[in-house]
Amino acid sequence: MIRFDDGVIRQVERICPSGVMRNFDFASRSWWRIGGTAPLAARPRTRSDIVALRRFSQNVDLPTLVIGEMSNLLFADERVDALVLQLGAEFSRPTLVDATTVRIEAGAWVPGVARFLQQHGMSGLEHICGIPGTLGGLVMMNGGSLRRSIGEHVVTVTSVDANGDTIERTRDECDFAYRHSVFADLDEVIVDVTLRLEKGDPVRMRQTMRDILRSRRLKFPRKLPNCGSVFKSNPACYAEFGPPGAMIERAGWKGMIRGGAQVSPLHANFIVNRGGAQAVDVLSLIGDIRQSVHDQTGHLLEPEIRYVDNDGKVWTADEAHSRFIANASG
Ligand SMILES: Cc1cc2nc3c(=O)[nH]c(=O)nc-3n(C[C@H](O)[C@H](O)[C@H](O)COP(=O)(O)OP(=O)(O)OC[C@H]3O[C@@H](n4cnc5c(N)ncnc54)[C@H](O)[C@@H]3O)c2cc1C
User: What is the C-alpha separation between 300 and 302, in angstroms, rounded?
Assistant: First the structure.
């Protein structure tokens, strides 16, 4: 096992001076306030930092975990043995290409992107104004709201693979589907995204965004840590059974508590941390809810949130449940 001796730490600090943190604690930083620590995290400022970090990790066989705001991630409770690469505000510059096209670095804060587009009268992505993530995380998840997704406005996505090579994909090559992109199955770091919008009126756009934010404040639990919707809303099953929250509520799970985790009494598609929740509490709730909704409706809910294991490998929550929970208790 390699890992984080002084030589490795010094090299990472040389590539990313002033952007390296030791003992990076997920429980105090992730939106769910759950997780152990990683020995080392780097916050790159430029694409060349990312290329250099990827080449270095490849050379010394160091697993890399890329994260943004951690608003869609559940972390293992113990040590996460990977070099964490966190994209954030230092790597978030927008470049206007023309009146309706903009390229933005992947660490950009999504509500800030929505505000930037509104100020420039570039309309179409007002629905992302309340999503607490980075642009890279949003594109990787093909996130959005009001049944829309960022992918609809993507022209190209640039990423850096494990060898440090840069790849540019067109929207078609990103394989966008509902809350899915090709990046879910690739070990690549999204570095920038080119978006094409329509011309819009900034005043009307601002009003639309205010309305969206007001409606989210009323609908979603805000007081306790959570990761947004746990399960994806499947458009096909929506017509028959309604949204996942309604299915989970009908199956009797609203308000149910497991350890420190609870199915939100406000919105059953949210799991909140009431204090001291562990990853195992959340994963076992997810597994049991899926089974129970399946027994009632014949439909298997697909989790939206993702789980990071002790090696820094990212799983969908259903894979994680069957691998780390069901097998352990079965
Ligand atoms: C209160 C709340 C409300 C939410 N509402 C919504 C909503 O309305 N719609 C919605 O779609 N989501 C919603 N979410 C979920 C979440 O905010 C989004 O999925 C967001 O886009 C995740 O971005 P992130 O930067 O936090 O990614 P993270 O959670 O840090 O990472 C998510 C995944 O993306 C990968 N990733 C992150 N950055 C990159 C990158 N640069 N390159 C490659 N892979 C990367 C990570 O490895 C991980 O697999 C909500 C979450 C919360 C807490």
Answer: 6
Q: What is the pLDDT of residues 36-78, one digit of tens each?
A: 999 999 999 999 999 999 999 999 999 999 999 999 999 999 9
| Active-site annotation holder among 43, 179, 290, 306 | 179
Q: Is the distance from CB of 12 to CB of 4 less than 8 angstroms?
A: no
Total length of the chain? 330
**Model pLDDT, residue 238:** 86
Domains of the chain: 6-88 (3.30.43.10), 90-204 (3.30.465.10), 235-329 (3.90.78.10)
> Contacts from 198-204 at CB under 8 Å and sequence distance 24+?
198/100, 198/122, 198/123, 198/124, 199/99, 199/100, 199/121, 199/122, 199/123, 200/118, 200/121, 200/122, 200/123, 200/124, 201/121, 201/123, 202/118, 202/119, 202/120, 202/121
Return the residue whose CA atom lies nearest to atom 46 of ligand 1: 67
Q: Which two tokens stand for residue 326?
A: 């069901």
Active-site entry in 57, 123, 181, 229:
229
Res 96 pLDDT > 90:
yes
Task: Give the closest residue (by CA) to ligand 1 atom 43.
Answer: 189
> What is the DSSP-derived secondary structure letter of residue 57?
H
